[in-house]
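Milestone M4 deliverable, item 7.
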Amino acid sequence: MAKIRIKSAGKIIAWIMRALAATLRWQIRDDAGVFDAHRRGCIWGFWHNRMFLIPWTHQEWFANIPGTILTSPSGDGQIIADLCASFGIEAARGSSSKPEKGMSALITLAEKARAGHEIGITPDGPRGPIYQVQPGIIKLAQLTGVPLIPVHIHYSRAFHFKTWDRFMLPLPFSTITLVLDPPIHIPRRMTEEEFEQKRKTLEDALLRGNDPDYLRQRLEAPVPASEKPALPHW
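Output delivered:
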């Protein structure tokens, strides 16, 4: 009975997500080129408390690219896996904070990334500490050579849950700001110091995105005509 309830929870949340998304307004800044119709998959890094709309965005705008997301092996991870399946996204079960214990998930993600899949990882998940990038996402980019994109999401209005990450649920008719940074490329060979520098680079980039004023400046910054992406209309 427990498994039935968990699967039902994922489907129910997917239904809520679709209904909520129909009411939202979006502001997008794409400095990563993800709206290029001819691109291959990349690795998306976003904070755990801002992941709610990620499955919807993938199916709505990037359904032509197969997607895989890292989820924990816990019951909550199963709910997220079932939710993502409703949006056509596969799940690899493991932990970005403990790659030595989630080696099978890391291998699966590496295979998917090399095959051109879009990979989604919350680098401070599944249990935190909040806003601290764990090494798994850097290791994946290092193994595969796939570009790593810091993804910033801000909700104009949101409900904050009393969880370790203060998980955010956007309220109906909110404005969603989505800012995608230029890709970070991780070399195959690095010293421990260089590896830590790349980890800190991603963490600093994601932390900057916690500031709504910073995101507003990014939205307002001019984009060269030759680099303007074909953004979706809604």
